[in-house]
Amino acid sequence: MLIAVALLVMVMLVAAMKEVALSTKGFMPEDEGDALFSAAVDAGTPGKGKPFVEIGSYCGRSTVWLGHAAGLCGATLFAIDHHAGSEENQPGWEWHDPALVDPESGCINTFPHFQETMRRARLENHVTPIIGDSPVIATTWTDEIQFLFIDGGHGRDVARNDYLAWAPHVCVGGVLAIHDVFSDPAMGGQAPYEEIYLPAVNSGEFVEVSCTGSLRILKRIKPSPNQ
Ligand code: MG
Fold first, then answer.
1. Residue 165 is assigned to a structural domain of this protein
2. Number of structural domains the chain divides into
3. CATH (domain of 130)
4. Does 225 reside within a domain?
5. Which domain holds residue 194?
6. Could you tell me the distance, in angstroms and rounded to a whole number, from the CA of residue 170 to the centre of ligand 1?
7. Is the dihedral of CA 198, 200, 206, 212 positive or negative?
8. How far is the CA of 179 from the centre of ligand 1 (A)?
9. Model-level pTM greater than 0.85?
C-alpha cells in the first residue's frame, strides 16, 4: 500500500513538472527533457549532494527537468546564463523572440522569465541562478560536478570555451550532457558536435551512454589531467 502511494505521488510530481516545462519558452523537446531528467537522476543518486551545473538556461524550460532531478538527488543545480540571449536569439536571427526584449533597455532579458518558471515549478530551493559569462564564472569554480549540462551559445568559440572551462570539473562517474549535437551538418549547426562532443569522446576521458534526438549523455571514466 505504501509503495503504491509513493508511486502515485511520484507520477503526480512528474506530471506537474512536465506541465510547467512544456508550457515554458525554450528549445528542449519533451523526449529529450525526459531523457535529461532520467540521466540526471541516475548520475546524481550515487553522487548524492554533489552539484549539478547547467550552462544556458534561457527561460528555464530544461532547468525544470534538471532542477527536479537535482532535488531528488539532494543536490543544488547552479543555472548559469548571462540572460541576454545567445547570438541566434538576437534581432534579425532565426530564433529571436520580441517578447523577451526588455522595454526599458531594448535588450533581451530572459531572467524575469526564468524566475517566473522556477516559481511555477517550485524549484527555488533546488536551483541557484548565476548570472554572467560561463567561462568567467568557471575561473573561480573549484567544486567537482556530478552532472554538467552544456546548452549555451552555438558559436564555435562559445561552445569550445564552455567545454574547456567546465568539463574538467566533472567527477569520475559524473555526466557531461550536451544539447544540439548534430553529426550531420544538414540537421543543424556543428559547434556542439565539433567543439564539445568530439573533443570529449576523443580525449578518452568520456564514453557515450545514450543519445536521444540531439541530446548526448557522456560519462566520465578517467580524471581530467587539468584537475
Ligand atoms: Mg539547446
1. yes
2. 1
3. 3.40.50.150
4. no
5. 2-220
6. 20
7. negative
8. 5
9. yes
